[in-house]
Design brief:
heterodimer; A: mainly alpha; MetI-like fold; two-stranded antiparallel ribbon; 11 helices; globular; B: 4-stranded antiparallel β-sheet; 8 helices; 10 strands; about 35% helix
């Protein structure tokens, strides 16, 4: 964005909103919104405590195991759906249903099936992330240039060659887009899991702070979560841009 | 001009091939011979089944009935005896020129150093030396098709199948390609099967032209230009026989063009 002839750095709007937050906080309009500076001070205080570090580790572990399984299962399933009509017909209704389903309502069922521990939280996280990853990988494969498939076939590609050397790469821009959105959804999944299944990690901190009206602490944890999600999303968006040059030039 | 010579050594023969898509008949009882070491064009209006026939010969499409023989062996799928050049080039956009040209060999399990040595030679042959590390989106349409051609040449198949290879490049590049193709046919001892919808192009480059007509799809005529093959690239386009054949083909095709 260019303002009064100056090119503003990316995300300058965050600074504006931060300043506004600080002003409203200093005016003490509501206890719900403490000044941003106070939140940062609190963040510095709690970030070295054992409780916080344990919560970060717990949440991070469930988050990464959950999303990693979603990626490892989701991408091949999506590619197979795009390649094979029969598999597609069988699975597509389910994928679409779970994509739009209120997964939170399913969490009690998962607790019955998988217990009240880490396993259920990881599965909740994976369930939040996987459907969009599947759908995007499928979409990526569906718009592959038919010539590329014929080319591989005509030069004698084995099915696994075709899968790893053609389909995966050709669908990569869409796959990365799906993984990025999947990661963002997984953040929701892991917190919901930690709130509903067993009170651990950041979920436990949210519960604790909001129940005791410790708004500075509450916001501090939320900021950490937001920042982590933002960094991951930006990193994946960066990868996506690196392959985007051929997303629009598949005919090449 | 339309006689069939049975003593000629044929690299590819097509016998009584039918192809149906459901109720639609794409090819009906098609028979054709492709003499070894020569370039045969499949020429005809759109919908005459020329690309379908080429893909059946390539093994990319199964024939409904009939037989395709390549060097006396029936075709049941793609094989190392044939290589395909695609109309839209079909290059891997995420791979550089070197990997694209070597990709056919890569799929055949040739070791990296070996296949890159072969690819390097053919990249130079098609005039792309120095572009080994470029990506397809950095090349012009004509250069991309040179990559496609180098890929087909580097697997060293006896039969080269070309599906309207020059139709997506500009007119001047196309002329250059046609001249290069003549040299290629002369120097490489390969059999070329060449699909085109351009009459001039077919007459210019072909040893034999099969005119295909639609509804039902059939071979209506086989023309073997002979008088101007020895002429220079420029001489051909002014040769009276060349001009006559172009006119005759147009006369027989005109009523099929909407």
């Amino acid at each position: 964005m260019i303002l009064f002839g100056y090119r503003l750095p990316g995300m300058s709007s965050l600074l504006l909103w931060g300043a506004l937050w600080e002003i409203v906080g200093q005016l003490e309009v509501t206890f719900f919104l403490p000044p941003l500076s106070a939140i940062f001070v609190t963040l510095l205080e709690i970030s070295t405590t054992k409780v916080f570090i344990k919560a970060l580790a717990d949440t991070g572990y469930a988050f990464f195991v959950g999303t990693l399984s979603a990626i490892i299962i989701g991408i091949p399933v999506g590619i197979l759906m795009g390649k094979n009509r029969l598999i597609d017909e069988m699975l597509l209704p389910w994928v679409n249903m779970f994509l739009s389903a209120p997964l939170t309502a399913l969490v009690p069922v998962l607790m019955v099936l998988f217990g009240f521990g880490l396993k259920a939280i990881i599965i909740t996280t994976a369930l939040f992330a996987i459907w969009i990853i599947v759908l995007n990988a499928r979409a990526g494969v569906l718009q592959i240039n038919r010539s590329l498939v014929e080319m591989a076939h005509s030069f004698g590609a084995s099915p696994s060659d075709a899968f790893f050397k053609i389909y995966f790469w050709a669908a990569l821009p869409e796959i990365l887009g799906g993984v990025r959105i999947g990661f963002i959804r997984a953040v929701k999944g892991v917190i919901i899991g930690q709130l509903l299944i067993s009170i651990v990690g950041f979920g436990a901190l949210f519960e604790l702070y909001s129940a005791n009206f410790l708004m500075k602490h509450f916001w501090a944890v939320l900021l950490v979560l937001f920042t982590l999600a933002f960094i991951i999303a930006e990193f994946l968006a960066h990868l996506e841009r690196r392959v985007a040059y051929y997303a629009s030039r598949r005919a090449a | 001009m339309t006689s069939e010579n049975t003593t000629i050594d044929n690299a590819v023969t097509v016998r009584n091939v039918h192809k149906n898509y459901g109720d639609v008949q794409a090819l009906e009882n098609m028979s054709l011979d492709f003499p070894r070491g020569q370039l045969t064009s499949l020429l005809g209006p759109s919908g005459c089944g020329k690309t379908t026939l080429l893909k059946i010969i390539a093994g990319l499409l199964p024939a409904t009935s009939g037989e395709i023989m390549v060097n006396g062996t029936p075709v049941s799928g793609p094989g190392p005896d044939r290589a395909f050049v695609f109309q839209d080039f079909a290059l891997l956009p995420w791979a550089d020129v070197m990997r694209n040209v070597a990709f056919g060999l890569e799929l055949r399990g040739v070791a990296k150093s070996e296949r890159e040595a072969v690819a390097e030679k053919y990249i130079a042959n098609v005039g792309l030396a120095g572009f080994e590390r470029s990506f397809p989106h950095e090349l012009s349409g004509g250069m991309r098709q040179r990559v496609g051609l180098a890929r087909a040449l580097s697997v060293d198949s006896q039969v080269l199948l070309m599906d309207e290879p020059f139709s997506a490049v500009d007119e001047q590049t196309r002329r250059k390609f046609q001249e290069d193709l003549l040299a290629l046919v002369k120097n490489e001892n390969k059999t070329f099967i060449f699909v085109t919808h351009s009459i001039e192009e077919a007459v210019y480059v072909s040893d034999q032209i099969a005119i295909l007509l639609p509804r039902p799809s059939r071979v209506s005529e086989i023309i073997k230009p002979s008088g101007f093959r020895h002429k220079s690239a420029d001489g051909i386009r002014r040769d009276p026989e060349y001009l006559d054949i172009v006119d005759n083909i147009w006369a027989s095709l005109r009523s099929y063009v909407e």
